[in-house]
Amino acid sequence: YGHFTFDPGFLATGSCESAITFIDGANGVLLHRGYPIDELATKADYLEVCYLLLHGNAPSESEYKEFVDTINRHTMVHEGIEFFFRGFRRDAHPMAMLCGTVGALSSFYHRDLDITDPAQRVRCATRLVAKLPTIAAMCYKYSIGQKFVCPQNHLSYSENFLNMMFSVPAEECKIEPAVVRAMDKIFTLHADHEQNASTSTVRLAGSSGANPYACIAAGIASLWGPAHGGANEACLTMLEEIGSVDRIDEYVAKAKDKNDPFRLMGFGHRVYKNFDPRAKVMRETCHEVLDALGINDPLLDIAMRLEKIALEDEYFISKKLYPNVDFYSGIILKAIGIPTNMFTVIFALSRTIGWISHWHEMLSQPGAKIGRPRQLYTGELPRSFTPINKD
Ligand code: CMC
Fold it and tell me: Best label site of 11, 265, 309, 368, fewest CB within 10 Å?
């Protein structure tokens, strides 16, 4: 079988070299191209972060303008995508529609696609970043039976997404600036996170030279699970299940019970064992949005109380389990009126730049190899096959 290290869950396996994102889990550090995430979330907008992740440096004024113009030129989707959508069941999960539709982009953009050409790879990346908000909003509109809303290029990236979500052809919606800022921060805080399950999936799929749109669809599939991107949705579902502040103790006890598989969704992280620097910014944003909107929602009361109880509980302290980014992003999204089943879609939209930047980086590296993990075989020893009698 040759020699290899058995490492289920890849707890100790470095799969690539990357210059995009640095994480020091023990000290709660997250840098994109050297910049701390809290600075990026408070001083840059999401498209600047996209440029930074993809190109390696923050854009100059003219580079930024050109990048925004290019994104704006690609926000529309092919008419055929609308027909494609109509094949989905109305009650399909928006993640199922997103995964299918982004995969289908590979059938629209396959001709003359030379992935060895860096300029063509960058074009794929900008096309994806531009179209994801349009497709994500289409998933929502289709699921509620409303007409798709076209992108409006005079709006910022985040406002445009919110407009496509909440406008109807009869009336444009008015979106609070605090909500637009929060949306942009949610996008930025989810933009990349080095070799997590979905990014590794995109790299693995792309390592065979596959079509990039199909690779991103693979990333979306991997993100969907509740242990990864699905956690923000699972967290809100859990809060709904808890139902009232006086039932929190019961759920905390369940989470601590070794014989109960229940976990508090939105708590804990594989890499951050001290605090999640994204959660810190998200927590502040969460309180800003709740204050700005003056929302009175019992679910949000449960969330705030749960946060307090868990942060003071010995079990969570000793196991270094803190609310993660998805705990707070779920609460913000709920407060601004995004339905729970769209939460992971928004995570996927935000992470697309991270995935495609890793794909671009991988294909820029000389001597890149197809990803091919090994296994420990636990099956039968060699045996002889006896055909059954088919007469
Ligand atoms: N609630 C209760 N106990 C927990 C939790 C939790 N949320 N998370 C971990 N534990 C316990 C776990 O039972 C284990 O206990 P013991 O040592 O007694 O067996 C210990 O803490 C270590 O857990 P682990 O599963 O070995 O830790 P991990 O690093 O493999 O898992 C995790 C990390 C995020 C999958 C896990 O904490 C979890 O399932 N959290 C809930 C789901 C969630 O919020 N996921 C979003 C992660 S952030 C967004 C993203 O990166 O996609």
Answer: 11
